[in-house]
Structures are given as structure tokens and as C-alpha cells.
Task: structure prediction
Amino acid sequence: MLRLVRANWIQRVSCNIQKMQTDGKLFVGRMFSVQDSLPKLPVPPLEQTVQKYLRTVQPLLSDEEYANTLKIVKDFEKDPGPKLQNLLEKRAQRETNWLSDWWMNTAYLDFRQPVTVNVSPGVVFPKQNYSDKEGQLRFTAKLISGLLSYKTMIDQQTLPVEKMGKQSLCMMQYYKILCGCRIPGRKKDTWVCYPPDEANPPRHVIIAHNNAFFSMDLYGSNNQPLNTEQLHVQLKHVVRQSKEVETPIGLLTTENRNKWAKSYELLLKDKENKVSLSELHRSICVICVDNQLPDSAAGEEESTAARMMLHGGGSQLNSANRWCDKTLQFIVGKNGVCGLNYEHTTAEGPPIISIVDHILDYCSKSEDKSAPAPDVKAPRKLKFNITFPELKNNIEEAVENIDSMVKDVDLNVFKFTEYGKNFPKSQKLSPDSYLQMAFQLAYFRLYSKPCATYETASLRQFQLGRTDTIRSCSIESFEFSKGMLDPAVSTQKKAELLRKAVTGHKNYVAEAIKGQGIDRHLLGLKLVALQNNMKVPTLHMDMAYSLSSHHNISTSQVPAKYEACLVFGPTVPDGYGVCYNPQEKQIIFGVSAFNCCPETVSMKFIDSIQQSLRDMKAVLEGSIQSKL
Ligand code: COA
Result:
């Protein structure tokens, strides 16, 4: 049934777009004004993809391995490559976006590991100025008011179209952020959405406090939003009604998806649980008012805050005060620590950060003077009956699992304050590509080898576009890393190698964001084979393919106006997750690793990145081009 709801909804969104394209009636606002003129995601030429593929796997393979891969690729180009390409091109003609549904399933809904740490990023806001419960609730009320003012722009479609340079971007992710929820399934999850133009759109948020969940209306009887003072009163009511810590039912949402699906089915057998789950799914978002904050050593406050946003700190801290299936969860902790966590199925970081920037702008302004909304209902506590002994056991297991997951995560945030993106710009280098080369050098210094590296490339220039991969490890980055660490190489030569590697990366970026990346194309060729009952091509089973998809460094740039930092877990057990916010005069990094892998240590990688940034600046300043 839920699956059907999701399928219908996705179909409905596509239909809406089609309709908008033909009669312009449904999406009339500014936000979707250019949606129908955005291009469709292209299918890159087959030969171009395989040539690029060979170049990116070369630094990761021995000569013998490369020769074997070369043969596999040449065979693929003869058969079944052209057949698959043809099928993919036909799909691209039929669909608004040949990739978007496949991507949502493959990257998210089919994924069985817990969403916590593995899928859902956290965002740490700059520390806010409150230190007691009253201040915490006042800030929460203001945050909700800021959120409501943003939501009004989404609902009325007045948000300006986002741009990358001069290029307008697809705004569909904004439409889905404040109304979506993931639902666990035994083999595959589903995704439901209650968009603002539904007959009965969501009008409430869920407040989590002491592991209890409350449904709190944000609008009065005439659809007028509650003002900040009213929201504050409502929040105080919630806190009064949840003085004791409750059964940690929210922990079930941090579990392996198959396990959570089994518990979910048991929960649904009870009528009251069913109503509570529906309230959760239909909400605008979850607001977690946290009670616990672990002590943190001086200078480590931001890293502690980042862990609260990523996983909540474990069963004894805030991990149960979450509903991790919900697309957006704002987290307001003690002593000014706040941020959010988002389930990734429908959106990338940039739209989320746009909401964050708006809310922080709003919170820094004066008090809300709007009139109170009439007929405000008191928040309603959601009831959960844990009747089956199996459910009790599952919650106990969830406690153990989250605690061991928390122990396994090694996450640190650091601010590099010696310079920001202005320095590479002054050297006529792309800051993003420059930072990617710093990661390559940092890794090479520690492990004396290059590694497959993922960087997110936005495909939002296209209708319903999501992401492709920028393969940051290249022949040029390998040459640069080796050269930088070789004392026999001159400063001049090192600077040349750096410039060449940065330019090579920037070219890859330019092609990837124009839909000419290789990873989603290769994925498409594999999926179209499966869809047509053909075998998985040998290329996709070759060790070069798995090696180049085993991302020992997984990265994303998420710029923000404020000193906010996004954090996520590594995508492989022996990898690093690196997110960065390059500001003009400083760069904020969130770096994660897993403790179960003794070779990867976040602080070790952070130190090496800092060293790289210093060395790279030194060689550029010491070389002739810089002095010209
Ligand atoms: N000389 C001088 N300045 C340069 C330059 C050069 N050679 N190259 C770039 N710049 C400038 C740019 O004009 C830009 O200026 P601005 O600060 O005024 O905006 C700035 O440097 C940043 O450019 P750059 O560092 O090259 O990055 P970008 O903004 O083009 O972003 C990506 C590159 C790959 C991060 C971006 O295209 C992208 O795809 N982002 C996806 C993010 C995402 O979805 N993340 C997911 C998180 S879950």
C-alpha cells in the first residue's frame, strides 16, 4: 500500500511537471518559473565514458591489472556496450530524467544499513546564545518561526530559483524537504510525501523531548501561523508533559532497515501506534529538544556538537530523541548547541543549508510582532503501545547497536584559519579543486598510495537532477602527490604539478556538472542490462570497477553563509568522510572515520590536510608564476 503511495506520488510529481510544462497551471510561482526550460539529463557518449574510466582507474592499478582492465573495456565497447547504450538512450527519451528514480532506489531505498551515520548527514549551527531550559525553548520557538517563514515561500512558490553561476537549477528538492518521510520495508524502503498542494497538507511538527513525541500544530484555525510567543507556550506544555525519560522507541529508526521493518510491522498491528506513526510521517519535520550534552574538553565543543547532530551520542544521551526516517530533524540541544540531521533520500546539502541560512538570519533579527493565531490546540502526545515481547527485545537490541555504532564513529570538526578560499582564487585556481588536491596529498602522505575518491557533483542544472561523482583521484593528482613529497623535486616543479592537477580536476568538475560524468552513466548501463534480463557486464564485475568505487575518501563541498558545518560518516569501513565549507578567510572541515579500522584516524587525517594546505601555499608563493 505504502509502496503504491510512493509510486503514485512520484508519478504525480512528474505529471505535475509535465502539466506545468504544457499549461503552466499547477506550478505558477517564481520557484518553478524556469523548471520546464531546464534541459533533460543527457546520456554521455559511450566512447567518452570508457576513455575517462580508463584514465581514472589507471593510478589505482598495477601495469598488469591495467592491461587486463583495458582488454575488458575494449570487449565491452564491442558488446554489450552499444546495445546497452541504445537502451539507455531510449529510456532517456521517455523519462523526464532517466536517472532520478533509479538513483532514489539504488542509492537510498534499497540500502539496508542504518540511515544513522551511513546515510543521514548532520549539520552543526554556530553556537547560540542561551544556557538554560527557558532560553533553549525560546530559541526553539524562534527557529520554528524562521522555518515557517521559509515554508511559506515554498508553499507559495515564491523562493527565487537557485543558480550555479548563470545556470538556473532544478528546485524540486525544496518542494520535498518539508513534507517527506522514509518508511522501512523488509527488502526495500518506500518514501512518502504530503506536499503543500495536497487537499489536507501537513500543519504540524513533531516535538521530541525525553524520547517522547508530540504532535504540535503550527497554524491556528484560520490557517494563520502561530507567533513565536505562542510556539514558546506550546513548547513549555510539551516539556511539562514529558518530565521523565520514556521508552526509547525512536532508536528503532536507527536500526538496520530490515530489522526496523519487522518492528514497524509489529507496531502497525496496534491502532494507537498506527495513528502515531501516521502523525510522524505526515509532519512538516521533527524538532528534537535534547536534554543531555556530554562534557567536552576545551576546543572540542564543535566536534561534540557534530556527534550530537550525526548520531545523538548513544542511548544514554540523545539518540532515542530522534525519528530518523523523517526528512528533516532540527536539533536544539543544551547550552546553545544546535543543528540538524536529514535523511538523504530526497535532497542534497545545498537546499538544506539554504533553509539553515534563512533560519539563522531570522533568529538573529528582532522579536516576532505578528498577531497571535486563533483557536490553538494543545500539543498531543503520541501513544506507542509496546505490546509484543519481540518489540521489547528489538528495542533492547537497538540500544546495544546504537551504542556500539557511536563508539565506532571517530568524528572531528576543525577550522583551518590560516587562509580561506581567497588564497587559491588569488592564484587563479579553483578553491574546490585546490582543496580536493589537498585531500589527495594528505592521503598520500599517510598511506604512500592514492585512493579512489568521491566528490559530489550537482546535476541540478537538469530537470529532477541529483548528483554524479567527481573522481578526484587522477593521473595528475598522483603525479602531484608524489612530486610534493619528493625532496629532489624543485619548488617550481611542485607548483606546476599542483596547477596541472587542480586544472585537471576543475575540467572534470565542469564536465560532470554538465551531465558528462562517468559513474551514473556506468550505473545506468548496468541497471538497463538488469532491467532487460541481460547479464551484469564484465566491466562492472572487474576489480578495477570495484576498486574505483571503493571510496577511501568520500567528500562534499557544502558552502554556508554562517559558520555551519555538515558532517557525514565514511562510505567504506576503511575510509574517511570529509565535508567542507570554504569561506573567504577560513575553511571548516568535518572529518569522520571508523574506529574499527585502526589505520584510519580522523585527527591524523586532519593534521595531514593542514600540512598539505601549508605546503601547497608555500610552493605556490615560492614559484615564479605567483611572483609574476
Ligand atoms: N580563479 C579564480 N577564482 C576561481 C577560479 C579560478 N581559476 N575558479 C573558481 N573560482 C571562484 C569561483 O568563481 C567561485 O567564486 P565565488 O566565491 O565568488 O562564488 C569560487 O571560486 C568557488 O568556485 P570553485 O571552488 O571552483 O567551486 P564551485 O563553486 O564551482 O563548486 C562543486 C564546485 C563541484 C562543489 C559544485 O559544482 C558542485 O557540484 N557542488 C555540489 C554540492 C553538493 O551537492 N553537495 C552535496 C552535499 S550532500
Summary: The radius of gyration is 25 Å. The chain has two domains: 109-159+168-409, 417-627. The CA atoms of residues 261 and 536 lie 29 Å apart.
